[in-house]
């Protein structure tokens, strides 16, 4: 069987990236791993996130994937820079594509970044943006409550607006014109975030750019496939039913087969 694109995340959020991979490359096989037994990664230490990530990549390599897409901002910011050197397989993270898109979008050179505590603490977006244009001002803030809201399907409730107003107030005050949604759960809350920030602020959801980079990398290596019946396999480290229940919201379609595995 043709080799698949491997994708992993701490849980279900990476499916927002899978959605875009499927849209841009419908004929590619995909193997997804969501580490639902150990989510969230966003409050864990760098050492732990690195260890979990290596285990997840080793699992995907056993599935003989041709590329690993790290569909998690926390892993991409904390672990990817050091672990990519240990593996031969090409790897694409979500930080650099999102940063590039934001630098391209901003006119007033004021960019906001929201993400998990770990992502914000790592300053990965800030460093990437500054390397592209040192004149850009970056303001960043962790918005940890957005993750459970997205998982609970609370996408428009009053409480979500109140929390979003609280989290986003410093960005409004600073007059940013571009906001990076630096967590794979946040695209689900786009309507609320857009309403709070106003229509003049561009929201950057890196999924599209990530899928474009995956496609380019596969094309360069002559690794693009055209499977008329592409196969998508989903694996999790905890209850498959919980994952399947949430998956449709994140992926926009039902998932047939989800299997439980252990990577540890
Ligand atoms: N997937 C994670 C991210 O994009 C959010 C959930 C977590 O904290 O593990 O940062």
SS element count, helices = 12
- Binned strand content: 15-25%
Query: Main beta sheet, described?
Result: 6 strands, parallel
Distinct small-molecule ligands in the complex: D-glutamic acid
Helical content, roughly? 40-55%
Pick out the low-confidence regions: none
Side by side, the strands of the main sheet go 4-3-1-2-9-10
Overall pLDDT confidence = 95
Write the element-wise H/E pattern from the N-terminal end onward: EHEHEHHEHEHHEHHEHEHEHE
CA radius of gyration is 18 Å
Oligomer state equals single chain
Q: Would you count the extended β strands for me? A: 10
Based on Cα principal axes, name the global outline.
globular
Distance between the termini: 27 Å
Which structural class do the helices and strands define? alpha/beta
Secondary structure topology:
Layout: E1 5-9, H1 15-24, E2 30-34, H2 46-62, E3 67-70, H3 73-78, H4 80-83, E4 91-92, H5 95-105, E5 110-115, H6 117-122, H7 124-132, E6 137-142, H8 146-152, H9 158-174, E7 178-182, H10 190-197, E8 202-204, H11 207-220, E9 232-236, H12 240-251, E10 258-260
Parallel strand pairs: 1-2, 1-3, 2-9, 3-4, 5-6, 5-7, 7-8, 9-10
Helix pairs in contact: 1-11, 5-7, 9-10
The structure holds D-glutamic acid (DGL).
Residues 9-11, 13, 39-42, 72-74, 115-116, 119, 147, 183-185 line the site of D-glutamic acid.
């Amino acid at each position: 069987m043709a080799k698949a694109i491997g994708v992993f995340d701490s849980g279900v959020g990476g499916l927002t990236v899978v959605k875009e991979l499927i849209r841009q490359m419908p004929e590619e096989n995909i193997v997804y791993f969501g580490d639902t037994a150990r989510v969230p990664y966003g409050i864990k230490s760098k050492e732990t996130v690195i260890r979990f990530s290596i285990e997840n990549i080793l699992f995907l390599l056993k599935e003989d994937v041709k590329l690993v897409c790290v569909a998690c901002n926390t892993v991409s910011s904390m672990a990817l820079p050091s672990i990519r050197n240990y593996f031969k397989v090409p790897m694409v993270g979500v930080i650099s594509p999102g940063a590039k898109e934001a630098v391209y979008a901003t006119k007033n050179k004021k960019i906001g970044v929201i993400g998990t505590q770990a992502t914000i603490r790592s300053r990965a977006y800030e460093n990437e943006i500054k390397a592209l244009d040192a004149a850009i001002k970056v303001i960043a803030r962790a918005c940890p409550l957005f993750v459970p809201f997205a998982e609970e399907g609370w996408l428009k409730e009053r409480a979500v607006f109140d929390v979003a107003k609280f989290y986003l107030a410093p960005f409004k005050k600073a007059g940013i014109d571009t906001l990076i949604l630096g967590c794979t759960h946040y695209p689900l809350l786009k309507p609320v975030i857009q309403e709070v920030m106003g229509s003049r602020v561009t929201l950057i959801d890196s999924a599209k750019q990530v899928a474009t980079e995956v496609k380019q990398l596969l094309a360069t290596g002559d690794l693009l496939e055209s499977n008329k019946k592409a196969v998508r396999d989903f694996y999790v480290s905890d209850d498959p039913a919980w994952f399947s229940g949430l998956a449709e919201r994140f992926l926009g379609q039902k998932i047939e087969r989800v299997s439980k595995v252990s990577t540890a």
